[in-house]
Amino acid sequence: MSEINTFFTFFFILFVVITVIFSYPVDITAYATDERQKIIQTYGEAELTAPPDLAKISLSIETRSSSANKAVEENARLANRVLQALLNYGLREDNIKTSSYRLYSYREGQKTDSETEQEKIYYQATNEMLISTTQLDTVGEIIDLAVKAGANNINYINFELSDPQELMFQALKMATKQARRKAEAIAEGASVTIQQLYNIREERTSYTPSRLEDTMLKREMVASAPTPISPEAVIVRASVIAEFSF
Question: In terms of domains, do 141 and 173 share one?
Fold first, then answer.
């Protein structure tokens, strides 16, 4: 009798365990579906150009002397002349900023009558100014005016967008559409149908102003006066990586 009870107890416990296991089919099905997920991954990119509406001119006043005080005083005098000339031209004070100021010393060898070389210490003061204007056709005149007033180095000119955000959004939209079209072409070639967008992420969005460097500016300034400056288009690029299920 005891053996019969044990036998029925064993099968009762087995029945309960099996019932519990098969009473949760949803989780097992969902997991299996995730395992069978089929994905097409594509890369979309876009490039837009636009005419600039803002120019930033970086120039500097450099002075040197065997006396630190004289180098600083001469630099201040020329910087004030340049600033006043730009204000008289019609620029506002908030369009003219000092981006950096440096004073450093260096040694320079000099030969005497006896052909022996002696080192002399010099001091150089450099005042860098950044000028902003939305009137791009006046950039050449501003440069010429600053040089005549005392600026002796034009570092670069940036042609930019005052608000590049909207153009960046447009580039992202175009990149996303391209990624979708690529996925559709792949799906058609494989005789499958895209179900939905599974995942998407922005890979890169860049904004590149048009820049004229120092060497390019020197060639322009040699050509004629006033200095002819022709801005190039600003470039905005965007790219995305998208995954589509099928």
Answer: no
What are the structure tokens assigned to 179, written together? 């990624």
What's the pTM? 0.71
Per-residue pLDDT tens digits for 41-90: 999 999 999 999 999 999 999 999 999 999 999 999 999 999 999 999 99
- Sign, CA dihedral 54-222-144-103, equals positive
If asked whether residues 166 and 241 sit together in one domain, one would say yes
Q: How many domains does the chain have?
A: 3
Q: Tokens for 236? A: 């905005």
Q: How many angstroms separate the CA atoms of 208 and 141, rounded? A: 25
Distance between CA atoms of residues 202 and 173, nearest Å: 11
With CA atoms as reference, report the closest residue to 88 among 141, 152, 11, 129. 141
Residue 35 has a CB neighbour count (10 Å cut-off) of 7
Which residues are CB-neighbours of 86 under 8 A, at least 6 positions away?
Answer: 96, 131, 142, 145, 146, 149
Please indicate, yes or no, whether residues 20 and 45 belong to a single structural domain of this protein: no
**DSSP 3-state assignment of 30?**
helix
Helix intervals (H) in 101-238: 139-149, 165-189, 214-223
